[in-house]
Specification:
single chain, about 325 residues, alpha/beta, Nucleotidyltransferase, domain 5, 5-stranded mixed β-sheet, 9 helices
Length: about 325
């Protein structure tokens, strides 16, 4: 029996996520793995793992890519849609909590706030400048304390009297933590103090001037950290919902949009299939000198064939076809 599915791919700077949904929007397989600075390899590795997790006779009816490397992922896989993270995160949040009004998403390198009314995005804000409050900073601090991120999270919950930590900057926060350790403060209280500081930083930066209205949904890999969830609930003063599969919500949203696109535009998907695993893909860049702008162009090739190119201020290099050769 053929199993039909829609595929969502979310390639971020730290992690790559996949989600496969049935036409009824049920998740039949998902995947969360490190990008490791190698987005091409992570996409191909993820497809290989996903193929093993899916039924052998699965038929992909549509695919969509999102994340900071969405153009690259879309070019590699032949995605039918390439959508921004805000839209995908919001669509997935509405699926999980239909009456959601506030979406907080904190990933490995950035954080987002999305305001929703009636299932539609009304406003949003992002922080991509400083890593304070993101997953990568928490991972770094856990490693510095020689703790797994799971142990870091557990000890944050054990803290009862959080130490005041500066959370406005990663450098200042780490210096402050070291100082507090040297003066004899309990490590559990320091860890929870850091969680509180990072949440305050998020609220005063990304959420500045925004009204957080219930229901509030917390998504992204950082939602695994129970200390951050606790701190967020205490600082916001209301319940914060962490939905199942919170770490792959961007991919889920992309898959939902792929289904919507397929229904609106019937026809075969452009998805290139799982056979692309092991292909000789390469990325390169060059400077276009066709005009004084001298744009940096990124190009993806499969052997001698250019799959896509982008990055210019005009449409000269916006290639999304498989017919141009190097």
């Amino acid at each position: 029996m053929i199993v039909e599915a829609y595929l969502g791919i979310d390639v971020g700077s730290v992690t790559t996520k996949f989600a496969a949904l049935t036409p009824a929007d049920d998740v039949i397989a998902s995947l969360y793995l490190p990008t490791g600075g190698r987005p091409v390899a992570s996409v191909l590795e993820g497809l290989a793992q996903l193929r093993e997790a899916l039924p052998e006779d699965v038929r992909i009816l549509g695919a969509a890519a999102t994340g900071s490397a969405r153009s690259l992922a879309g070019a590699l896989t032949g995605a039918d849609l390439v959508k921004n993270e805000i839209t995908c995160q919001a669509v997935a949040a509405v699926r999980a909590v239909p009456d959601v009004r506030t979406v907080i998403e904190i990933g490995g390198q950035d954080s987002k706030l999305i305001l929703v009314e009636g299932g539609l995005v009304t406003d949003f804000a992002m922080n991509t400048v400083c890593a304070a409050g993101t997953g990568s900073f928490l991972d770094h601090q856990a490693a510095r304390l020689r703790l797994s991120i799971e142990e870091f999270s557990r000890r944050a919950l054990a803290g009862r009297h959080p130490v005041n930590i500066s959370g406005r900057c990663t450098v200042f926060a780490e210096t402050d933590m070291v100082h507090k350790q040297q003066t004899g403060h309990d490590v559990d209280e320091i860890i929870y103090g850091l969680c509180r500081a990072l949440v305050r930083n998020y609220l005063s930066d990304v959420a500045s001037g925004k009204e957080l209205r219930n229901p509030v949904v917390f998504q992204g890999g950082v939602a695994f950290n129970a200390g951050i969830v606790r701190a967020l609930r205490e600082e916001v003063g209301t319940d914060v919902i962490v939905p199942p599969g919170h770490e792959v919500m961007g991919a889920v949203g992309a898959a939902l949009l792929a289904r919507e696109h397929a229904v609106a535009s019937p026809g075969p998907s452009a998805f290139r299939g799982f056979d692309i695993i092991g292909r000789d893909y390469a990325t390169s860049s060059f400077e276009c000198t066709a005009c004084p702008e001298t744009c940096d162009i990124v190009r993806v090739t499969d052997g001698e064939t250019v799959l896509a190119a982008w990055g210019g201020r005009c449409d000269k290099w916006h290639i999304l076809a498989e017919k141009r050769s190097v």
